[in-house]
Design brief:
Blueprint (H helix, E strand, L loop, with lengths): L4 H15 L5 H18 L13 H16 L3 H8 L4 H13 L20 H8 L1 H10 L1
Helix pairs in contact: 2-3
């Protein structure tokens, strides 16, 4: 019986988490899903027809959209539960995945691409203001 890709992925993520305990398993899977989401929205390179490389700033932009779709105004709470407290943490997760050979990088990619990306509370509160107001009125 062969080892599935999912088993290999799970093993590598568990290895990463043994070295870096800061982030939950779900945070790693979220980043991989957010990258897929980003690639589907960015499309292929117009010149080559190949998948484009996604930089840190681009990924952060689409993380906001993906998290809004997945978690709505609860995104900051979910991130907090996963150990993610700032946009820099997304960079740490990405570079952990690079170290585990689950993602690739270009020489210009840096953890600094994730610095000062966005404030969770304000971004998701603004995006979901109406829903948050409805929730607050019920309390």
């Amino acid at each position: 019986m062969g080892v599935s890709e999912q088993d290999v992925l799970e093993d590598r993520i568990q290895d990463v988490r043994m070295r870096d305990h800061r982030f939950s398993r779900n945070a790693y899977y979220f980043i991989l899903d957010a990258l897929d989401f980003t690639m589907s929205h960015m499309g292929k390179d117009q010149m080559t027809g190949e998948e484009r490389h996604v930089g840190g700033r681009e990924l952060l932009h689409f993380i906001k959209d993906f998290a809004s779709e997945q978690f709505g105004p609860m995104a900051p709470v979910v991130f907090e539960q996963w150990g993610i407290r700032s946009s820099e943490d997304f960079g740490e997760i990405v570079f952990n995945l690079i170290d585990a050979e689950l993602l690739s990088r270009r020489p210009t990619d840096s953890r600094l691409d994730f610095v000062d990306g966005f404030d969770f509370q304000s971004v998701f509160a603004e995006r979901h203001k109406k829903r948050l107001d409805c929730i607050a009125q019920r309390i």
